[in-house]
Recover the amino acids of this structure.
């Protein structure tokens, strides 16, 4: 099959790779960190070249909340193919402001539809778990009618803080970049980030504020998408539910996504393996120990950040009113 790997929708430049379902399924992420191609070609699409794709099934998530595991659980060879973090959609999300301003090779609906046409080339039902970078494009996906069914996965705010800090410098840097990327979707987002966050002089305290702000912004985007009533049967799930009852949570996700029922028990291999590195076994004991170590070092900092966020008003999600429509 041909798969849209990279897409500059402002100039029309794209990387199309030759691949197959087995290679896509074997890759943990489809963002370039792993090779899943049998070959690739560079193309330039013009407006007349754009395909029209059907609305897709999505697993949206706030990050660090078990979304990779959930995607593995709903994936079933011969029935369901879960695409984990295709880079082409992340590219489009990064370009969304320019697309909204009319600087793309087509409008939002045309560009997203073209990407979904390439991502939907499989006999199996396709589920897309995008990078949480794509959450900023939720207003556009909703307005374009690009979401057929969806699951939204989150965790509580303290769990998010622990996971972000547990990931170290690279993960915290990612959170800072994404917070900056999402802030202008909110009436007060950029002001909060520029003043109430930036004025905090202690670097790790500032980082904790950025993380709780990012979590709040993503949950607000989810809430707005759910409130739009444009996504039938959408479900909000949590990491706590997935951890306590993986089989039941998987069943709820499959029902929300309207997927074929091929069994009631979750994939034992997926549960036993580390979701992001299937060659390693996952240890709940090790994970809990790492979380406890983070808490020991940062508990007071987390409390300050959570108290600060409780008093913050993000304002309206302005992107929803400014998104393109079909």
């Amino acid at each position: 099959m041909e798969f849209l790997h990279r897409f500059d929708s402002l100039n029309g430049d794209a990387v199309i790779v030759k691949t197959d379902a087995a290679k896509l399924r074997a890759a943990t992420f489809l963002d370039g960190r792993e090779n899943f191609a049998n070959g690739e070609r560079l193309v330039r699409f013009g407006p007349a070249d754009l395909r029209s794709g059907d609305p897709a099934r999505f697993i949206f998530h706030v990050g660090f909340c078990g979304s990779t595991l959930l995607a593995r659980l709903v994936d079933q060879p011969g029935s369901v193919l879960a695409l984990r973090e295709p880079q082409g959609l992340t590219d489009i999300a990064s370009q969304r402001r320019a697309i909204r301003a009319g600087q793309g090779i087509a409008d939002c609906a045309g560009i997203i539809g073209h990407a979904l046409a390439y991502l939907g080339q499989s006999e199996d039902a396709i589920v897309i778990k995008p990078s949480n970078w794509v959450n900023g494009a939720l207003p556009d996906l909703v307005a374009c009618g690009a979401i057929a069914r969806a699951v939204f996965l989150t965790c509580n705010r303290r769990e998010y803080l622990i996971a972000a800090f547990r990931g170290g410098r690279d993960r915290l840097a990612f959170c800072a970049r994404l917070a900056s990327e999402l802030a202008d979707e909110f009436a007060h987002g950029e002001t909060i980030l520029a003043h109430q966050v930036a004025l905090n002089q202690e670097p790790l305290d500032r980082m904790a504020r950025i993380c709780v702000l990012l979590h709040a912004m993503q949950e607000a985007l989810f809430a707005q998408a759910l409130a739009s009533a444009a996504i039938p049967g959408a479900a909000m799930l949590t990491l706590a539910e997935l951890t306590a009852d993986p089989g039941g949570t998987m069943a709820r996700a499959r029902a929300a996504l309207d997927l074929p029922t091929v069994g009631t028990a979750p994939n034992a291999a997926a549960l036993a393996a580390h979701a992001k590195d299937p060659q390693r076994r996952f240890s709940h004991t090790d994970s809990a120990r790492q979380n406890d170590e983070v808490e020991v070092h940062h508990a007071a900092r987390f409390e300050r950040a959570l108290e600060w966020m409780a008093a913050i008003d993000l304002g309206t999600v302005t992107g929803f009113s400014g998104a393109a429509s079909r």
The two ends are 28 Å apart (CA to CA). The mean pLDDT is 92.
